[in-house]
Amino acid sequence: MVFATLDMVDDQIKTAKSVLKGLELREDGCVYVIRNSIRWAFYVHHGKLAYASHSLDSFERLERHLRGLSREVPALNDKLRSQLRLIFDDPNPDNAKYKVTSEILCTEYLALLWLVNENYLPKPLASKLVARMAQEVIESFLCLEDGQFIEKYYPHLLRNIYCKLTTSQILDVVEKRLQAWYSLGPTICSPHQCLYLVSQTSAARRMSMDTVQRLGRILRGFNFYQLGALLGKDPLMLAKQLSPMIKDGSILLRDPLPPFDLLPPTYRLSPDEEEYNINQLSETLEEFEETANDGISSISQVLAHGSPKTWKVVCIDDSESMLSIIRSYLGSEDFQVTLIQDSMKALMKITSIRPDLILLDIGMPNVDGYQLCSLIRKSSSLKDIPIVMVTGNKGLIDRARAKLAGATDYLTKPFVQSDLLKMMMRHLI
């Protein structure tokens, strides 16, 4: 059976907007748009958009949006989100359970179907989730420069449809949001830029020192999308509120981390075009300037809820150098880090500490990580603590063994600080 036809776009120059509008004329199915090494997937049903995704860590996008919905559905907690990743986010597509389907149907959509079928996610909220994720994807897609687009068409394989959006609906919302993102440039040029608080003294001129300290705990290299998931707020709203402190140097912005550095920026125009667009957006700019002070007040209110917590993290690894790296990555302000080299003594120490999270190396002498994880899960007082298995092995068998042993998640060596902090965000913050 032939699953796809390939439509190579000729020398005609297209815009991302025209490609989206062309979806209205497509038959039911999936349109893949390939551009700049990124595969964009648009699922069409009766001329309307049923789902949208792109190939850059789509499961991270699902996890963030599920985290936002967890305020409405507590069952969508970190334990369930980790379970989803272990089930569906297969690191080796060649071994995927649904080999043919996985080439055509986005993996995170399979996870979404599972959540609905297992009664974790009501269908009305599934519709809301799909709409939010589609909006985020299309915001990035519309930032692509004009050029040649390669399109592939596949027959329809969506087993359930929770949301149907017209192109006019999408463009009306997304183009206004992109104008707002553009108005924050050139300082803020991507929702995936990473934020760090670098000057508490400067920030304290705008808010109380208590709020500054809370802000410093949050701004540890997370991007605007991740901050939105952490705080339950629209990333665009947070960018607007934090913009004054970014401009005065209180907050440092760094370029998006891979793979998100491949996505097009929200601010990228020639000088002449910039001048023209700034004039066209003058009303929007004035609106942002008028509400800047209100934004600082709002961010203070967002951070005011709940008292700061120092998270207790236990790291078990026979490598002293690896333990040192983890300690340096986590720092000393937000995390109380306990390092354990001897796996034979680890269970007793964990029982007395009662940590909030355990980082557990797999390859240790005497008692290996799998065995220790199983022992921890047998303890009534420790069984619910998140356990992240840390290993240099990337194979499917190792991942399956970690799941059987009771691991909550899986972190592959070598990893950088942002990888570890993302894991902290997933299970603690």
Automatic annotation (TrEMBL):
Any GO BP: phosphorelay signal transduction system
The name this protein goes by in its record: Response regulator
The organism of origin for this protein: Pseudanabaena cinerea FACHB-1277
InterPro entries, per database record: Bact_response_regulator (IPR050595), CheY-like_superfamily (IPR011006), PatA-like_N (IPR025497), Sig_transdc_resp-reg_PatA (IPR024186), Sig_transdc_resp-reg_receiver (IPR001789)
Assigned keywords, A-Z: Phosphoprotein
Domain Response regulatory: start-end pairs: 312-428
Modified residues (4-aspartylphosphate): 361
Pfam families: DUF4388, Response_reg
